[in-house]
Amino acid sequence: MSSYQAPATTEKVVTTSSPAPVRWSLSTRAISVLTMVTLLAAWWLVTAFNWIEPLFLPPPSAVLEKAWLLMTKGYMDSTLWQHLGASLQRIGLALGIAVLTAIPIGIAIGTNRIARGIFDPLIEFYRPIPPLAYLPLIVIWCGIGEFSKVLLIYLAIFAPIAISTATGVRTVDPAKLRAAQSLGATRWQLIRHVILPSALPDILTGVRIGLGVGWSTLVAAELIAATSGLGFMVQSAAQFLVTDVVVLGILVIALIAFAMEMGLRALQRKLVPWHGQTH
Amino acid sequence: MALLQLERISAQYPGAAEPVLSDISLSLGPQQLLVALGPSGSGKTSLLNLIAGFVEPSAGRITLDGVPVKGPSAERGVVFQDDALLPWQDVLANVAFGLELAGAAREPREAKAREMLALVDLAGFDKRRIWQLSGGQKQRVGLARALAADPRVLLMDEPFGALDAFTREQMQELLLQVWRRTAKPVFLITHDIEEAVFLATDLILLAPNPGQIVEHLQLDFGQRYSAGESARAIKSDPRFIETREHVLARVFSQRNALREERA
Predict the structure, then answer these.
(1) Are A154 and A98 in contact (CB under 8 A)?
(2) Mean pLDDT of A198-213
(3) How many domains does chain B have?
(4) pLDDT grade, residue B145 (50/70/90)?
């Protein structure tokens, strides 16, 4: 009798406890939204009552107005879209070249002893250096044009992608490799059908990290040496104490970073649905 | 004529004092299901890895149809203990993988893969993802994948070792059915005595330190299953139990002999 009742009680426990985590995850998100709303309200409050000079912190309405102005008329000869476009073009170009070069090199490092011997010390040498530390040297060598900025961001993105690709390649399940070999796979087929897909989750993580580093490097580089781009817009506005443009620029930079992170997470879910599945 | 031939094979890991396998000779031909049984450390897996071509013997020679074995090849299909399937492909693509590697066109390779899935009772599972399968289903996909490449011999590395007892029974019966219908010579390793006695036409018993063959039995329980007798009836047959206990005693006597030798 008691043994018959046991499943019934566990079932009861399950039904009562299962909605609880759902409610929790909802409220976590709600808390986040509430935090943002509170922050905005505080911003509005301190500016509406003039507790802080608009020079230091312009009200949200002024920033929004400025945003409209920047989108239609522009600042420093270019609209917000042009600044944004300049920044996105640089990081897009750098990312594209980084993906095309870092993934093959990462695979080479992970599969070939000689390639590892060549590239490992090079990458480990320059990776810990903050990109802004070698920006002056790049400017001396390559001038102040687009090329230097793209090269700088490229270098910043390259290392994380190459390193995580190599890690992904090295941690491929040896049983999968053997299985493919005993089905007749050649070396190239092993890379194409087993190693590359196995390493894909790590590669995408590398791209995510690289894009984060690349974006901050880009904005910082534009602060120093540029005539367009979001970083340049913020920097030149700061020189004339146009605080609303500075605040707006920072918000746009944050939004883009957030959007890239979310986009890559979505891409990861779509491309590697097996990742994290117990199998 | 024997298909697969091992002549005086020894194997040693680099830097190890003692060989893992010493002086192994055996042959595997048509209509044979050879089971290598032994405790851990007896070199079962090493033996399979040698035949598969994953490692090379330190002495002796392995031939398939008279041709020396060199490296892994599609002639020797392998089913692994942990399925080793590719989770980024669906079930059908996994089974067709060997044919894809060989350059077969999509239509014929998928037709062949469907045929193999039907053979292992997984018809209609084409589009399933690997992580949606149970352990037994994964092993069936692994078996179908190995068979789809049409190997000369099938090597199975403790294929049912990670399965629960019920699924294992079903898989043993399925293997016998598949073996009978495809007529592939099978080399299977296991540490499950009942499984070995039930499946084997030829049973070799391996003893450790170094791995060597201490007994070679010819059995017919698998054939009796193929002839229509039920698996449970065979496994509770006094002759089956007697054979099982005999093998068990051999394993233990080997172990005791070893212990005395060391003492």
Answers:
(1) yes
(2) 94
(3) 2
(4) very high
